[in-house]
Design a protein that fits this description.
The chain has two domains: about 1-125 and about 150-190, HUPs (Rossmann fold), CATH 3.40.50.620; about 245-314, no CATH class. About 50% of the residues lie in helices and about 15% in strands. The protein has eleven helices and eleven strands. The strands form two sheets. It has a six-stranded mixed β-sheet with strand order 3-2-1-4-6-5, with helices on both faces.
Length: about 325
């Protein structure tokens, strides 16, 4: 099949695996993760991977037991080891369900990676997911450094998280499953306007598609360019950070321009804490003042302590 050839070429070009690696696939039984596993199986004669599946039963729908049954049957059919965990807290929550569920899943994945010594964690995020994420972040007013969060590979715990399907569109994957006559779980909650991502997917993106039918590829190109620029800035700033960064304190800010402070602070905060646009602007304004120290209270409980030449996360 054409998509299997494209997938194999993608693996070769990216050098994602060595032969016989032990990998963990985040598996929901939905079309995306089923496609990922089928594509991995299509290259088994080359890579001979030890593929394990990790499934979380969120127990939020009446069909949860039926869905878990499908996942177990799928794993058994292809002789793939399956790791299952049930989320007990979901039904008690009235808000923040998406975030809490995601945190539970990734804590489970981290636990498995450590215990079973997997070298890679694979998720089934594809090109449409990347597009949705970018649009969501633009709507929310996210800054430059947050727009490329769906990178193809990144460190996760002591292993690596890889998103092998980013070059593939949702329609490609759906066509692939149709060709293979492969069943999968249809998540009805994806149609609900209750969730922000669904509203973007079902209401915003169709409008964008009318203006540019190739918007998915356009967004992917934008994401790649953004990531290249981010990596360039990181390399350019290495000397500054080597000289001025100590644990949670960034120094050397006094004689920089506002634009330079903005870039260095964004890079300093990345992977350390969440800071919104207003808090960043407040920090920049305080650095231009004369009376120190000053503090900025963040929503997550952290405090930024600001002096004339440095910022410290408390």
């Amino acid at each position: 099949m054409k998509i299997e050839k494209k997938f194999f070429q993608h693996l070769r070009k990216g050098s994602f695996f060595k032969e016989h690696e032990k990998i963990l696939v985040a598996f929901s039984g939905g079309g995306d993760s089923v496609s990922l596993v089928q594509l991995l199986l299509s290259v088994q004669n080359v890579y001979h991977l030890d593929i394990h599946l990790a499934y979380v039963n969120h127990d939020l729908r009446k069909t949860s037991l039926e869905e878990e049954r499908f996942v177990r049957q799928f794993a058994s059919q292809y002789n793939l080891p399956l790791h299952v965990k049930k989320w007990q807290e979901g039904k008690k929550l009235t808000s923040g369900i998406e975030v809490s569920a995601r945190n539970f899943r990734y804590d489970f994945f981290a636990e498995l990676l450590k215990r079973e010594h997997f070298t890679k964690l694979l998720t089934a995020h594809h090109a449409d997911d990347l597009t949705e994420t970018i649009v969501m972040k633009l709507i929310r007013g996210s800054h430059f450094f947050r727009l490329s969060s769906l990178s193809e590979r990144r460190k996760f715990q002591h292993s690596e998280l890889i998103r092998l399907l980013l070059p593939f569109s949702k329609s490609e994957l759906e066509e692939y499953l149709q060709e293979k006559n492969q069943h999968f779980i249809f998540d009805e909650s994806n149609e609900s306007s209750k969730y922000f991502r669904n509203r973007v997917r079902n209401e915003v993106l169709p409008f964008i598609k009318k203006e540019n039918p190739a918007y998915v590829q356009a967004m992917n190109n934008f994401s790649k360019t953004n990531e290249y620029l981010r990596q360039f800035l990181q390399k350019t700033a290495q000397g500054f950070f080597k000289e001025n960064l100590k644990k949670n304190t960034l120094s050397g800010l006094k004689f920089l321009s506002r634009e330079e402070r903005f870039i260095y602070l964004m890079m300093f905060f990345e992977n350390r804490l969440e800071i919104n646009k207003h808090q960043l602007e407040e920090t920049l304004n305080l650095l231009e003042g004369k009376q120190f120290p000053k503090e900025v209270q963040l929503t997550n409980g952290n405090i930024l302590q600001i002096h004339a030449d440095n910022v410290t996360i408390l």
